[in-house]
Amino acid sequence: MRNLLYTILYTVLLSAVCTSCKKEAAPTASTDTLGYALPQGNNNYDTTILGYYNKYGTYLLYKFTNKDTYWTPTGWKNADSVNKIAGYYATPANPAYISRQLALIKKLWFDYYTDKFLKNFLPAKIMLCSGIDSGYLTFIFTPVTTSVLKTKPVAALYNYDNICVNNAGPAIDTMKTRDSITYMAKVNLVFIQSMTGRNVANPTADFSSTTSYNTAATSQALAYASGILYTYYNGPTAVRDWSMYMQALVSCSETKLNKSTANTDATFVGILNPTKDANGVIRKRYNMVRNYYINNYGVDLQVIGNAADQ
């Protein structure tokens, strides 16, 4: 009996030691829910990618399948020219350009935010791409009316749990200053839009209480007067408006925001000018959103807008 007890005790202790050793020696990072393993290779940039995962919990993938980027619970989002279905095409990164793409992402995206912000708001996956094309349907009218799928290259695109980021290819070598600004503007705007899409950008109680969404505005001018930026006829809510204010902050300079513009104009230009902001409610709500991210995350989103809108 005593020998049996010793055997059991020895087995339990050995199991505990082995488990401890496995935890300490794990060379890769992964999650139970997604199942990806890092590093994906043994290049210098793999160390950078693994570092981002360990810091933010986000996978930067240069090897990915169609399911990894196109699948969503409501259907696949890849464009289909044969069946004329809108969507997008994402081409995985060219390995020769990944180091330069990572440097570009750091400079024009990550460096504008604090680690706390990125850890809280980056998506589960960032797809490193050599090409991203947005596919959209349009019509041709001769000789007969028919729909066709056309594409245009984009710097970044959000889908469900991932953001695709372009320029891991030869085009990165010929980027001019204007190209960098355009790239930076798009990537940061897509990041902010993805936060709303993933339900991680929610309005504060003070923001929600500064206007009423119970009565629909009958014009954009009346919506502006109430502090509502979202399109007046398309079901504005506090959540949608919070997102619009964030988008205005990262995509428009303070000069543009304060420019006098007609109150029928549906862009962000002039939203802080009395012509649009007749009652000062937009400025009040703008300051709420801006100060929330400054005070809670150390990030001034307007700094991004000033850099992106030159």
Secondary structure topology:
Blueprint: H1 2-25, H2 44-56, E1 59-61, H3 66-70, E2 71-72, E3 75-76, E4 87-92, H4 98-108, H5 115-121, E5 125-140, E6 146-153, E7 156-159, E8 162-165, H6 177-197, H7 205-209, H8 220-225, H9 238-251, H10 254-257, H11 281-297, H12 301-308
Parallel strand pairs: 1-5, 5-8
Antiparallel strand pairs: 2-3, 4-5, 5-6, 7-8
Overview of this protein structure:
- Strand 5 and strand 6 form a beta hairpin.
- This protein has two domains: 132 residues, no CATH class; 104 residues, no CATH class.
- With 310 residues, the chain is α/β, with parallel strands linked by helices.
- The protein is 44% helix and 15% strand.
- The strands form two sheets. Strands 1, 4, 5, 6, 7 and 8 form a six-stranded mixed beta sheet that branches. Strands 2-3 form a two-stranded antiparallel sheet.
Rg over CA atoms, rounded to whole Å, is 24 Å
Secondary-structure element pattern, one letter each: HHEHEEEHHEEEEHHHHHHH
Determine the N-to-C terminus distance: 82 Å
Query: Which percent range fits the helix content?
Result: 40-55%
How is the biggest beta sheet arranged?
6 strands, mixed
How many distinct folded domains?
2
Query: Beta fraction of the residues?
Result: 5-15%
Low-confidence stretches: 1-32
- The whole-number mean of residue pLDDT values reads 89
Q: What would you call the quaternary organization?
A: single chain
Total of DSSP H or I helical runs spanning 4+ residues: 12
* Class inferred from helices and paired strands: alpha/beta
User: Count the strands?
Assistant: 8
What is the global morphology? globular
